Amino acid sequence: MAKNISGIQQIGVGIPDVKKAWKWYRKNFGLDIPIFQESAEAALMTKYTGEKVHSRSAVLALNLQGGGGLEIWQYTSRKPEEVGYDIQLGDLGIFVAQVKTRNINDALIFFKSEGTQVISEINKDPAGNEHFFLKDPYGMIFQISKGDEWFGTGKHATGGISGCMIGVSDIEKSMALYSGILDYNKVVYDVTGNFEDLQALPGGHATFRRVLLKRTKANTGTFSELLGAGSIELIQITGVKPNKIFKNRYWGDQGFIHLCFDVQDMSSLKSECENKGFPFTVDSSNTFDMGEAAGHFSYIEDPDGTLIEFVETHKIPIVKKLGWYLNVKNRNTGKALPKWILNALSFSRVKD
Predict the structure, then answer these.
(1) N or C: at which end does the chain have fewer Cβ atoms within 10 angstroms?
(2) How far apart, in whole angstroms, are the C-alpha atoms of residue 260 and residue 280?
(3) For residue range 292-324, what is the model confidence (pLDDT) as tens digits?
(4) CB-based burial of residue 238 (10 Å sphere; 0-12 exposed, 13-18 middle, 19+ buried)?
(5) How far apart are CA 225 and CA 149, in angstroms?
């Protein structure tokens, strides 16, 4: 087999209270389908947790309208550290997570009616895509953007995660990873200047180079129809030395902690990453049990140290109350699960 990257599986977000945070994300983003809920030690992540094993509680939640999920992550063995300064656009790391919507105007009305901290009105990016920004209760910034990849319908104003903005120090070096390995090789725009649609963001009045990346080929794989391909926007500030968002802090502290991709054939991907100068820094090797789910996970770093996770899923719960767990470990590369199986995940929906 050859490696296959199905799409963005999830973005990890470190917060101080997983229960309160997930309730907020359920209500506001419709992320009400838990793929796993687990409290355990993060024994394999000591490289990024001060060479000590720390405990955590986490939930991976999806929205069945489509898109990636959020891995909502809380330390239980220590108090998660805040950033300690006002993060500025262009700082190194994941600055904004993107959530998709079918109707941008309806979404804006919904969030304002809920008292959400909406920090911009609707603007257009350099490609004409409509979007606006908001903050969650923990100060994380989300971009609500018009989406065109959908799996199902639902009552919520948004679907799931559809991309992110990542601050980088050198776009050319970063493209070697994001385009060369992750296959986000379609440049939608590559522009430099001051941008009206970024003005509401902290530091958004500066001059930036912006590169929006999508995929030239259709995404395939076990969960490809649910996840969609999504997009990645690289942001490089000019004339200013950026800070590293997670400098002197641990993975799992407050903020967007990683960008995770659903993959098949981890061994081929590992070889390619090593050959291209991005070796695995964490590797669970075989099947790693995550409570109700199981898989093989690994991490690499982008040129600025931002963590990229890969997950090759082996088992997921479809209907936990009936004991229906699906083994997808040896599924053919590129073959998508039938839609009816993925729709059965709705039986696990958490309702408030």
Answers:
(1) C
(2) 14
(3) 667 899 999 999 999 999 999 887 777 666 666
(4) exposed
(5) 9
Among residues 24, 27, 12, 134, which one has the least CA distance to residue 80? 12
Tokens of 1: 């087999």
Give the Cα separation of 94 and 241 in Å (integer).
17
- Please write the tens of the pLDDT for every residue from 318-327: 766 666 677 7
Range list of β-strands (E), the chain = 4-14, 33-41, 55-62, 69-75, 93-101, 117-118, 123-124, 130-135, 141-146, 161-167, 186-193, 208-214, 231-237, 255-264, 282-283, 288-290, 293-301, 307-319, 324-327
pTM for this prediction:
0.95
- The C-alpha atoms of residue 29 and residue 22 are separated, in whole angstroms, by 10
CA distance 143 to 134: 7
DSSP codes joined into one string, 266-306 = HHHHHHHHHHTT---SEE--S-EEETTEEEEEEEEE-TT--
